[in-house]
Amino acid sequence: MIGSDDRKDGLGTLETLTTTLIDSINGYRDAAENADGSRFQEIFRRNADERSRVVEELRSEIRRLGGNAPDDGSFLGATHQRFLDLKAAITGRDDQAIINEVERGEDYLKEKFEAALKLDMDPEARTVVERAYQSVRQGHDQISSLKHGLEA
After folding, report:
1. What domain range is 38 assigned to?
2. Which of 32, 95, 120, 138 is the S-S candidate for 44 at Cβ 3.0 to 4.6 Å?
3. Total-model pTM
4. Mutual angle of helices 4-34 and 123-151, in 10-degree steps
5. pLDDT in single tens digits along all 152 residues of the chain
């Protein structure tokens, strides 16, 4: 049986994953705005939309567990985003640089989900996190493949 401490821990994990995913949505939208190639813009927009869908699933699970679902990303994510905006204004970006940044974010996100899946949590919450992780892993692998394709 899941106790209230486990529920609280599970809520914290779900909230952290949700804010991190929101950071990822913001990163994908930023990447779509700054990419030169329309092919990349479309991929980034689709990934942002997919992440939005996953965020809604996590929010729904947070509410089911009695928590307050986050509406925005993390402070760290916002700070990182501002730095990227400044960097873009100063140096300009090409598609390779954007994809490198997106892949770095994907690596971070994948690690967060893998760490979360090692924790004890409500079985229904675990199922939602596992589904979200599958989406995250697909996005990660897609961006990694794009990066390696550009490097070839």
Report:
1. 4-66+75-151
2. 32
3. 0.83
4. 30
5. 445 555 666 899 999 999 999 989 988 988 888 888 788 999 999 999 999 999 999 999 999 999 999 887 766 666 556 556 545 654 566 788 888 888 888 999 999 999 999 999 999 999 999 999 999 999 999 999 998 888 77
